[in-house]
Design a protein that fits this description.
two-stranded antiparallel sheet; DNA-binding; 8 helices; disordered C terminus
Length: 309
Amino acid sequence: MADWGLQAVIRPKEYDHQHLDHNDLFGSIDTKKEYDQALLFCYPHLFDNHHHHHDHVVTDELVDQLYKPVYQTIDHHHGFDPEIQQDQEQDIKNFCGSAPKTSQLAPKLKKRKNQQKRVVVQVTADGLSSDPWAWRKYGQKPIKGSIYPRSYYRCSTSKGCMARRQVEQSCTDSSIYILTYTADHNHSQPTRRNSLAGINRSNRVKAIPKSPTSGDCGKTVTMSKDSPFHSPTTLSVSSIDDEVLQHSNITHETTFYNKFDNNEGLAMMPAINDDDCMVFSDDFFDGLEDLGGYKMESSSTKQFPHVFC
DNA sequence: CGCGTTTGACCAGCGC
DNA sequence: GCGCTGGTCAAACGCG
């Protein structure tokens, strides 16, 4: 059975247009479930205890606008294989249905590198510390085609954890860092204290220099698909809960778009402003922090990158 | 002392 | 088969 690790990326619209060479590196998210997976992989705290679905109105035009370009990308770069999609659907169902068994968690040995599932996240320098997991650097290598080296991290929370993270600076936009997550955590999300204990030092070291040009777009996060989301603590795939929204005082400025996908849930996409950035109010992040025990860095305006476009 | 980064060496996948 | 490249290992070292 095919087990291709197609990647998907959510990135600012203008980024795609200006950095087409990077499209060769990444695929794109093609379903809302994959977006959920990406979110869950990187920000699991957003999903804890929120595993019921909600009805949200979304127009067909909006759905087409949000998702159509992604399918095109997949067709172009990876080819569209119904069997592959079926496998991916099954992976997601396994993930959604119940806590996975140990056998499901164990990565396949000798798996081809390009078949490994991975999640690609693009963040600004400020966003590098927004990861709740504790990572330990175990290698760094210069990458062909990039003037910046790639750093390799493994999860330091648990010795047996196979989760990996790669960090590289975009060669076309030095303010953007490309995070690639592979494998999955075999443990629950660390507590805030544990997480800080693991990242305090590395954060202070600032191994990756912050670009003087960064900061224009706040937290720019780019998500990708096909993550190995089999965290044993995960209850189900879900979207950010209405309770979160209410708790966060979401206003018209922080509208979420939602998309039904074959009765298997819906995605919630932050609104895109005129600058092609998702904008969240401070109240929103305060709410998330309260609900998930997760501290976002202080900033007057939080902006998440939006989906491909 | 524990935990982190750095860095050169080594290994394996992949294309030719 | 060979060479290139990416990913990992492990020793050395730094820091609190």
